[in-house]
Design a protein that fits this description.
alpha/beta; Aspartate Aminotransferase, domain 1; Aspartate Aminotransferase, domain 2; 2 domains; 7-stranded mixed β-sheet; 4-stranded mixed β-sheet; 14 strands; globular
Length: 435
């Protein structure tokens, strides 16, 4: 029987009177799948419980940060101890130095790092730095990649922009949008052509090394190395947005996995252990341009917040001793079993996976870029989402987002998920459900 979220409905009605759309981030509104969002009361490990008392196995994991699962005891203890000492000082702390040291030790390209309060802020700051370092204005991004909601980064963006089906956003000045070029992801030839035409004006290429905001789309062979080659030859910078992939695909992120060293890296999510944080870093000579060491101004009252930093440090301590290979293999096994269920019912699906994140696309063709992602059947994904929700599995309420597996997910969670998927695909196929 489908949950009847009485209290969630009441809260959503109250929220819509006070908050635009009733949510503080658009994709939470369920507009991509229909229905009304569940308001969450608490969570532990791999499970979340809504205000109506229904518990779900969670594959959203707060959109990626909770690789250790919800309310990990070591992280909670670190947060409580940090909060007891004071929630904000507006002054440096030892924890900031420790987190910066851990990030620099893990990521091959990062020599210095600046902590900020969000991924959007990190991306915006990295772009400003790239423009200052090169003396150029044009930015290159890729269709369906999302780098936060700064003006120059909303052109043909993914994530909630893709879910809502809008090409950008009103309020972005045309002059700003003209400084951004958006190309098809995984199409290195289009990048080479653009650089031949405009290379001397291009400050940077910014890219998700594994796209995760049009659904999960891994890089094609040679794509990332091609970007490195083209940018280096033109004197432009290469920026990796590893807000999602950083510490998710391994301690060294996608750049270590694929052996590509960008000039600048953007981080967030996991480095805050579930609390708001962001960071950008890279070569020492570039980071030396940031104030107060250099002339490029960027500041933030809550940057390096001691509570968020404590959560991040403890999360990374746990990850330094965790088995990423096992997490990868468990995710692969889960995906293969669900894929088999879809195939058994004759439901065409394509499953893209990178490490512990994956997306199920309802299509018969491969998904390698934003255009092919958009050709997948979003309405069928919405039906699948609700079938799974009915069976207490919480997936992303959008066909253009990733699902995440955490270290807290256990075999019993996978078994329940696989059984729910089999029944859900059966329902989509119109087959009678086995007793």
């Amino acid at each position: 029987m489908s949950p009847a979220p009485t209290h969630s409905q009441a809260l959503f009605e109250a929220a819509r009177a006070l908050i635009p759309g009733g949510v503080n981030s658009p994709v939470r509104a369920f507009l991509g799948v229909g229905g009304e969002p569940r308001f969450i009361a608490r969570a532990k490990g791999a499970r979340i419980t809504d205000v109506d008392g229904y518990t779900f196995i969670d594959y959203v994991c707060s959109w990626g940060p909770l690789i250790l699962g919800h309310a990990h005891p070591r992280v909670i203890d670190a947060v409580q101890r940090a909060a007891a000492r004071g929630t904000s000082f507006g002054a440096p702390t030892a924890g900031e130095v420790e987190l910066a040291r851990r990030i620099a030790a893990a990521l091959p390209s990062v020599e210095k790092v600046r902590l900020v309060s969000s991924g959007t802020e990190a991306a915006m700051s990295a772009v400003r730095l790239a423009r200052a370092a090169t003396g150029r204005d044009v930015l290159v991004k890729f269709d369906g990649c999302y780098h936060g909601h700064a003006d120059s980064l909303l052109v043909e963006a993914g994530s909630g922009v893709a879910t809502l089906g809008i090409p950008g956003s009103p309020g972005v000045p045309e002059a700003t949008a003209r400084l951004t070029r958006s190309l098809p992801y995984n199409d290195i030839d289009s990048v080479r052509r653009l650089f031949q035409a405009e290379g001397s004006a291009i400050a940077a290429v910014i890219v998700e090394p594994v796209a995760a905001n049009m659904g999960v789309v891994p890089p094609a062979p040679g794509f990332l190395s091609g970007l490195r080659e083209v940018t280096r030859a033109a004197g432009a910078l290469l920026i990796f947005d590893e807000v999602i992939t950083g510490f998710r695909l391994g301690l060294g992120g996608a750049q270590a996995l694929y052996g590509i060293r960008p000039d600048l890296t953007i981080l967030g999510k996991i480095i805050g252990g579930g609390l708001p944080i962001g960071a950008y870093g890279g070569r020492s000579d570039l980071m030396a341009m940031i104030a107060p060491e250099g002339p490029v101004y960027q500041a933030g009252t809550l940057s390096g917040n001691p509570v968020a930093v404590a959560a991040g440090n403890e999360t990374l301590r746990v990850l330094e001793r965790s088995d990423y290979d096992l997490l990868d293999k468990r995710t692969e096994a889960l995906v293969e079993r669900m894929k088999a269920s879809a195939s058994a019912e004759g439901v065409p699906t394509v499953w893209n996976r990178a490490g512990s994140m994956f997306t199920c696309f309802f299509t018969e063709e491969g998904v390698t870029d934003y255009a092919s992602a958009k050709r997948a059947d979003a309405k069928r994904y919405a039906a699948f989402f609700h079938e799974m929700l009915k069976r207490r599995i919480y997936l992303a309420p959008s066909a253009f987002e990733a699902a995440f597996v955490s270290l807290a997910h256990e075999e019993r969670d996978f078994e329940q998920t696989v059984k729910a998927a089999a029944k859900s695909f059966r329902a989509l196929a119109g087959s009678p459900e086995a007793p």
